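Submission checklist for the structure archive. All mandatory fields must be present; incomplete records are returned to the submitter.

[x] Identifier: Receptor-like serine/threonine-protein kinase
[x] Organism: Leersia perrieri
[x] Residue count: 799
[x] Sequence attached
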Amino acid sequence: MVTYRFYSCILSMIILVLSFHESPLHAADTLTANQPLSGNQKLVSQDGKFALGFFQPAGIAAGGSSGKWYIGIWYNKIPVQTVVWVANRGTPIYDPASSNLTISADGNLVLLVKHLKIPVWSSNITNNTVNNSTVAVLLDTGNLVIRQDSNTSSNAIWQSFDHLTDTLLPGCKFGRNKVTGVTKHQISWKEPSDPSPGMFSLQLDLNGANQYTLLWNNSVEYWASGNWTGNSFAGTPEMSASGGDTNNPRYTYQFIDNDQEAYFMYSVKDDALLIRNVVDVLGQSQTWVWVDAVQAWLLYFSGPKSKCSVYGICGAYSKCSEDTVLSCTCLKGFSENPTNRNPGNRTAGCRRNVPLQCGSSDSSKAKDPDRFYMMSGVNQLPDDAQGTNATNINDCESACLNNCSCTAYHFNGTCLLWYSDIVNLRDDIDDVVHNIFIRLAASELPDSRRDKHWLIIGIIIVGLTVVSTGAAILYFLHVRRRIHSIYCADGSLVNFRYSDLQLITRNFTKRLGAGSFGSVFKGTISGATTVAVKRLEGLRQGEKEFRAEVSTIGNIHHINLIQLLGFCCRGSKRLLVYEYMPNGSLDQHLFGKSGPTLSWSTRYHIAMGIAKGLAYLHEGCRDCIMHCDIKPQNILLDASFVPKVADFGLAKLIGHDFSRVLTSMRGTLGYLAPEWLSGQAITSKADVFSYGMMLFEIISGKRNMEHEASTGSPGDFFPLLIAEELPKGEVCTLLDPKLAGDANPKEVDRACKLACWCIQNHPDRRPSMREVVQILEGLKPVEMPPIPRYLQLFGDSED
């Protein structure tokens, strides 16, 4: 019996020790410099209501693959993950085990990641008296506070309640400090799976009224709570001072306005009651209450009541309606923007199916001017209208039609014109009869005059048909045979006859341009769909191998890769049929002598889109596909300037015969990775190098060698100029002069550093294209790059 008890005691001790190792949780609510938080450790408030630690948003944890982790505070006792505060909401980390939350030597609470020299996130306390006993404590209210010592009565020198994310908890003062001028904001998450700051925010009215306002993009006010009446806000009677029950209130609201501050606060009388106010990802201010009986959050209040009242909820050129659920419908002539990130969020709106013809250099298009589509039942006219002196609807239409920037007009005794995207259109209010006329390309609308013209022609044709029935039947059978000669291969790509491609390209007469592997021609299918036909030259593959490779490339689909529609393989003839890109290639916009200047925002989104396309080729496909010829000429732009990487299949089509690629790359000075010349193995990092060199050109608006050519000095090679100016913080001076300095300095600095990392001598020092995307999105920090050795030698050659 003694032996049994002895071993039982030993076994219990072993289990106890193992439990500490398997569940390394902080038992306390306090964080110190000597006891950082890492991995699956967490702080738990004294009563266990709240926890702080590393988490993944529910949308990611449920099966997403982003690998992003954040430091946050959540309810600890309920089964539904409900995060109420996020520290590093714009800078996620990717490995909690190699990261830790700790108190730094200067008394700040910081999130550190191994191998990074600076914190990913910091409390940024200034004028702090450094104290070795500084601690961070998670309170029962859900407030994380930093104190100079562990004494619970000491004042907080920093608290999470002063740095709200999307949630307002009971006991938090929400308003403005009149002494410091600091106003608190609730800012929505971007997506349910992305806590980075979204487009919607709630704050105290900046005009001085005692009410709260919801804003879109921190600029457009679209909802207000109404002024505080002493018992509630005028527009939200649900939020009364007694909490809806004057006899036994479980929670109360109050609004305080004095010389020091103005703020709103709600308090809970019953500690068992869980209640929170959130600015939702779709722009509503919502109050939720946890109901144990159903183990779920129930919505208690939302404002505005109608989701269609949220500014930009459906994005541009989309109509909002709401019965039981929100519905966004693209206007005639528009289709959903592919940048809408999930089915429940349509804030990216819609984009044109066909570009406007106004200002087009194509003379055939100029003969068919833009027209207008009338949308009726609009409950409110869009913002930013500009009035004109037109006195009738015809003059109003002409005023819009004669200005290529005008997107819509309205006439009701007064002529109003819009020169920006049309948002906030809705048809869910029956008693509104506003009409607005939306500008579209002529091909998107029927033309009554043209209809009459074709009616007459139709009558003539019918008459001729009666006279020459036999000839018509023969012609019909001929056309039918031609249609049936086009069939689908592998269920997706169209296998064209060579004669078909001759027909749709008018015997290859409309040449769009030429590349390393042949010429490209414009064609039209069925009289409506425009395509680009690339006639390949010098490929040595047999027909069987060519068809196999084309089939593989045809199954690769990504918004930033040009879509292959079909092919032709007849004898020695090899042709590829692609979707047509109306805005041509990137080099035409960067280096062309005429045409509009690409804004910095457009350039940055183009750079990001190219990176996403290449990342998909390198890591998203079953086999890694290297492009081998990244340059502005091979980046095409659609009607909305979304970039498409072109010729991405040619490296695969020519197999391992890289000599032609090498030769063609030498023909375009400035994009060739060093390993092509040194005999090293060629990997996807060669594409990264070419991308970096192209990124320099996107920044400068010139070919890299043009700087040297204009001065005759090797020291004016643009990548070298950037590398030398980066440590000085002067890169904005090297920005394309056509931008006149109109650019986001942080994005310019980030892009310049990234470009320098991409062109490092050794491939291992270059980032992957997936990392390039993360850096451009601001999800991964980028350090100061070293000057590549060959650039140093390039500069030294000037001496």
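[x] Structure attached
Curator remark: Residues 1-27, 60-65, 469-491, 655-667 have pLDDT under 50 and may be disordered. The two ends are 91 Å apart (CA to CA).
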